[in-house]
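Note to self: keep these together.
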Amino acid sequence: MKLQRRKTDEPPIEIRVTLPAEMVSDLKGYCRYYEATYGESIELPAVTVEIVRHFLRVERDFRRWLRDQEPGAARDA
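Structure:
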């Protein structure tokens, strides 16, 4: 499993999204997978947060772009 255990110490900010039914079905399956792996249940919103968190953490092009946005980052002329 690539998804790490969820972090519960961060304050949440609510956003609302509408997902296709197939994606919701897959996310529910992932909840069952998480429970089988870690021995604890996870709710659909929480697993969705962890999947998005994981994606943003490992997406190399996005990470590179973020670094380039930092003050003092070298810019192409």
